Amino acid sequence: MIKMKNVVREFDTGSIKVRALDGVDLEIENGDYVAILGPSGSGKSTLMNIIGLLDPPTGGEYILDGENVLGYCDQQLTKNRREKIGFVFQRFNLLPKLNAQQNVELPLLFQGIDKKEAAARAGEMLEVVGLGDRLNHRPNELSGGQQQRVAIARALVASPPVILADEPTGALDSRTSEEIIKILDKLNAMGNTVIMITHDHKIAKRARRILYMSDGRINNTYPWEEG
Question: What angle do CA 128, 129, 131 make, to 5 degrees?
């Protein structure tokens, strides 16, 4: 599903260049469940942005679902992002003036899907994440955990093969965090490829593989074994 070879990302601060990624090699198979673990400044968020086609690498190779996406124009990147990747962010990024169902509809409407069909699919996805009774609630009428469930439903509604979760429990308490991780566990069991960015070792251990990042590099890849 994802293959990177010698990926570099540099930022020009004016006086010096900062190398956020320093030759990353990465392979993630279809249906995998991967946690990218590392401290602040390790490069994991930069890596997430490149995986999610939000930011181009300075150098290297990136193959997504069999296609070399480097050199794609903005239109091609947007199309691949919408069709292949569902994003779950720490801060939810819900539109405050829209209710839960309307927030979840957005990716489908951007794809040109009929409003009636989009509303029906959004309602079904909110049922999947346990919010079938909150369709008409706006974000300020929902708890943090409920808002994250809406964000997960929005990420899933267009059926992307890859779910990219950036610190999905970072703004939640421990009980609500467990509920959100159980949803990600379930999605992976259903066949979705799940890539989770986190600094929390306990959360990372729920994945099948943990990638440890520091100083812009992936140091080790370990299969996770229960017990």
Answer: 100
